[in-house]
C-alpha cells in the first residue's frame, strides 16, 4: 500500500465464499460486464477503480450488489531537472515534473553525494535557488501522492564560452576576481 490510500502495486481480489449455501459469485470491474467468479481478479491499470459483486445461494436467491472503490498508481512520476544562471554565484534549479495518475506531492532538492536535503517544494513551479562556487551535484526527487518517486541529477556549474574558448568555471574562495569575471561573462 502506498500513501493517501493509493495502491502502488498490482492489486488482487479473491472472493472466499461461505461454504454454507453460496453457489455462485458474480463481479464486475468498473463499467464492465458481470462475470462469474472462478479465479482471483488481478488489476494492474493505473486509476480509480470500482469492483462490485453479488452472490447467488444454492436456492437461487440473489444478494444485493456490494462494491468497493480503490486507487492504483504503479507508474512513477516523470522528472527533468534543468538550471538557469541568475548570477555568477547563483543558479535556479527547475524540476519539470508530471504524474498522470495521483498527481505530484512534492519535489526534494539534495546536494552532492551526502544526499543532504536542501529544500522541499510543494507547489508548482518546483524550483530551488542555489548559491555557491563549488561544482556540486544537485539531485531532485519528485514524489507523487501515492508515494512513487523518480530522480534526476545535474551539476551546479556552467561551462562558459569566452572569446571562442570553452572554460569550466571553478572558483576559489577569494572574492577579488568575481566582479572582473562577472563583467567578462556578461559582455
SSE layout and pairing:
Blueprint: E1 6-7, E2 11-13, E3 22-29, E4 35-36, E5 41-43, E6 47-57, E7 66-72, E8 78-87, E9 90-98, E10 104-111, E11 116-121, E12 126-131, E13 137-144, E14 149-155, E15 159-162, E16 165-168, H1 178-185
Parallel strand pairs: 1-7
Antiparallel strand pairs: 2-5, 3-4, 3-6, 6-7, 8-9, 9-12, 10-11, 10-13, 13-14, 15-16
What this model shows, in words?
With 187 residues, the protein is mainly beta. It folds into 2 domains: 6-72, Immunoglobulins (Immunoglobulin-like), CATH 2.60.40.10; 78-185, Immunoglobulins (Immunoglobulin-like, Sandwich). 4% of the residues lie in helices and 52% in strands. The protein contains 1 helix and 16 strands. It has one helix at 178-185; strands at residues 6-7, 11-13, 22-29, 35-36, 41-43, 47-57, 66-72, 78-87, 90-98, 104-111, 116-121, 126-131, 137-144, 149-155, 159-162, 165-168. A 5-stranded mixed beta sheet has the order 1-7-6-3-4, with no helix packed on it. A hairpin with a 5-residue loop joins β3 and β4 (35-36). The protein is rod-shaped, with a radius of gyration of 27 Å. The termini are far apart. The model is unreliable at 171-177 (pLDDT under 50).
Amino acid at each position: 500500500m502506498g500513501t493517501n490510500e493509493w495502491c502502488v502495486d498490482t492489486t488482487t481480489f479473491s472472493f472466499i465464499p461461505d461454504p454454507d449455501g453460496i453457489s455462485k459469485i458474480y463481479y464486475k470491474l468498473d463499467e464492465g460486464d458481470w462475470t462469474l467468479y472462478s479465479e482471483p481478479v488481478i488489476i494492474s491499470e493505473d486509476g480509480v477503480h470500482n469492483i462490485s459483486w453479488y452472490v447467488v445461494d444454492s436456492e437461487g436467491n440473489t444478494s444485493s450488489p456490494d462494491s468497493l472503490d480503490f486507487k492504483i498508481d504503479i507508474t512513477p512520476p516523470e522528472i527533468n531537472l534543468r538550471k538557469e544562471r541568475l548570477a555568477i554565484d547563483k543558479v535556479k534549479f527547475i524540476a519539470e515534473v508530471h504524474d498522470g495518475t495521483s498527481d505530484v506531492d512534492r519535489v526534494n532538492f539534495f546536494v552532492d553525494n551526502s544526499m543532504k536535503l536542501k529544500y522541499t517544494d510543494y507547489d508548482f513551479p518546483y524550483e530551488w535557488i542555489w548559491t555557491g562556487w563549488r561544482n556540486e551535484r544537485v539531485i531532485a526527487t519528485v514524489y507523487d501522492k501515492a508515494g512513487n518517486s523518480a530522480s534526476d541529477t545535474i551539476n551546479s556549474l556552467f561551462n562558459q564560452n569566452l572569446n571562442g574558448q570553452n572554460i569550466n568555471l571553478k572558483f576559489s574562495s577569494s572574492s577579488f576576481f568575481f566582479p572582473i569575471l562577472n563583467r567578462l561573462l556578461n559582455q
